[in-house]
Amino acid sequence: MRTHASTASPADGGDSSAADWLIEGVGANGADGSGSVSGNGGGQRSPWQCRIKLSRAYDSEDKPLAEKPPEQLFCVVTDKAHITACVSAAQAVLLNPRVVEGAVGGPQAYVPELSSAQPGCRPADSAPLRALGDAACYELAFTSNKVVLEIDGAEADLTIIDLPGIIHDHAKGLDTVKAVERMSRTHLAPAHHIIVIAQPAGHDLETQAIRRFAREVDPQGHRSIGIITKPDRISEEAHIEGEKLVRLVATRGELGAAVKGGKRSAAQLAEQPPPPPQQHPEEQQAAAADGHLRLGYYVVKNPSQEQRRGCACACELFRLLWRVADTLDGAVHARSDSCDRTFYQRLAAHYRAYGDRTIRSTPAFLVGTTLISALSKSDKNMRPADIAAAAAAAGEGDGSDDGEVDLAALTWPPTSPSTPDGGGSPVGSGRIRTGAQAEAALTSQGAELRALLDKHMLPTRPMTLAELSRLRDRHLGRELPGFSPYSAMEELLRRFQGQWREHAEGCLQEVEAAVRELAGSTVAEELQRFPKAERVVEAALSSHLDSLLRATEAQIDELVGMEDGDVFTLNDHYLRDSQAAFLARLKRAYLRPQPLDADSKHAVQNLLGQLSSYGINFRSYESAFLAQPTPVDDELHMAASCLAYFKVAFKRIQDEVPMAIRKTLLRRLGNRQQLEAALREQLPDVAAAAPLLLEEDPAVAERRRQCGDMMRRLREALAVLNSPAAQL
């Protein structure tokens, strides 16, 4: 944002307090004061800073220069509370051209002590600036040269011109009076300019010279605004002035509006809607005659120095809070402009750990010596190399992706404990051959078995057909033979559903610990200079985080509750296909068909061809083998249905819990508005508390002052060394 500021003599007849207020108000909202402000608030906002430059287009006699020199940088301001002091110093430089030209260090010698100033407080004037004395002693009372403010990170896109106050007489003659008048008329004339007329309360606005100038270029008052300053200066006994002020502002200029039976009160006038816009020439002429400003009148009271300091400190406190919020938001989302991805990667590791735990909570059934899981190795995110390694460990030569593990690769009986001499004597050297041996191995939970279950990400206690049969028998009632109770199926599903809640809550706790650690370190880093503010912001952030955690817990509870409390899917086709595939694998594991050599396969195909001539069609030997009934068909069908359902449901719960954490907790963690609200809950009156919170340790402040003073002296010495006299 670019700002042009036309400087006026500090001793002119204008409202200097209003100008000071405008400087700070514009600086706080993206526009400037003591001059004219042009802003660009569009696009991505950059960090706030203000570059103050000196624009010299006139000589000391206020005559245009033949060639305008480039603008000269005066200083760079990063604290909005420093703008007023820096603009005043820049004005002093322009109003004392000869003194500044001969000063060591040039204009930069008059820059206020920004390096030693506390945030939110006005900086001290430099020694050369104090040596200039009062404004009445300046070389020039007025100059057409400008102080230019360029503001980055502004919220507005506008230009504000702070013109010198209208004067009627001056010690240096009428030329100065005419120069001020000429400048004012020049800037009031353009039809796209909004005219802001600032006058102290108690003065009759319509009799002021500036109102006359505005009336000449805006007779109908459509682009003029009245600003009434210093309302607190009106005496309590001045009832007429007070009533006139209230009526002026409340009625948008309808002074003396009469009704039947007398004049309306201020409240009645305030309740009346504004008059409709003028449409006809006659109405426009009437509007010009009444002299009212159509953009309204506003009363502005300057805050006290204590209030100003409180507001400036509050702005600084919120700026620090925003830096905390932006840092948290960048860490959570791994912004492209941030180099550190550690926190994001840490959260990703927690999500993967949660996914691994949910994988191991999905059902698996032991049929014969084979463990059959609801998830394939690909579903478990196992890489091809891991699949091959797991297959080799399980004694599988093909490295298939079906999620089956044959316990026949385990030693049976298991090895005995180590002997005192350090060796282990095996009780037996055989392998598991029967289902009973496999069930016994599951019960004993030996080290070899645990390692195999861990490698394949299988539950630590798979369910056996005997357990499934006992579960079904408990629910048998009036069902006909060949039918399984649906209540038995529901209990089977609930046995595995209930484990998801524990894993979801564990994932949230891990993320919470990481977030609290990040929040604490971020607050400590950003507010380490202000211990009191650090404690308050930390408490506000903790309160904000607690509310987000409660909302996240509620959402996760709802998600897990839906999965635990219901059995539902619309993905019928995938469920049926999965159920058929699982049933075939379960039956194959139970019957354990013998592999056929080439001659046997040829003979079987001939037999199947003969059967097809009788209408009995089997596509393969395996399909014919699986068609034969078994004593546990009902149990196998229940197990296949359970595995198929969890293959569908697992994909939902695996992603929904991390997504809920990301959406409800992490995405809102660095929200500026919510953090501000949390801070205001801790500090109802931020402006009153901010100055105390931003107090530095006295030793740190003194050290900063010393460093600033040393830097200033080094700059002065460098300027002397680089001066033409030093080169001789």
Topology readout:
Blueprint: E1 2-6, H1 16-29, E2 36-37, E3 49-55, E4 72-77, H2 83-95, H3 97-102, H4 127-131, E5 146-152, H5 174-188, E6 195-200, H6 209-217, E7 224-229, H7 239-250, E8 258-259, E9 262-263, H8 266-271, H9 281-290, E10 297-300, H10 305-333, H11 342-360, E11 364-367, E12 370-373, H12 384-393, E13 404-406, E14 411-412, E15 430-431, H13 435-444, H14 447-455, E16 463-464, H15 465-474, H16 486-497, H17 499-526, H18 531-565, H19 572-591, H20 598-612, H21 621-626, H22 633-669, H23 672-682, H24 686-693, H25 698-721, H26 724-727
Parallel strand pairs: 6-7, 7-10, 11-16
Antiparallel strand pairs: 1-2, 1-5, 3-4, 3-5, 8-9, 11-12, 12-13, 14-15
List segments where confidence is low: pLDDT < 50 over at least 5 consecutive residues.
1-19, 26-43, 253-275, 417-428
Helix percentage: 40-55%
Structural class: alpha+beta
Mean pLDDT: 81
Q: What shape does the CA trace take?
A: elongated
Number of helices, where a helix is a run of at least 4 consecutive DSSP H or I residues: 26
Find the count of extended strands (DSSP E, 2+ residues). Answer: 16
The major sheet is characterized as: 5 strands, antiparallel
- What percentage of amino acids are in beta strands? 5-15%
Domain GED: 635-728
Organism: Chlamydomonas incerta
GO molecular function: GTP binding; GTPase activity; microtubule binding
GO cellular component, one term: microtubule
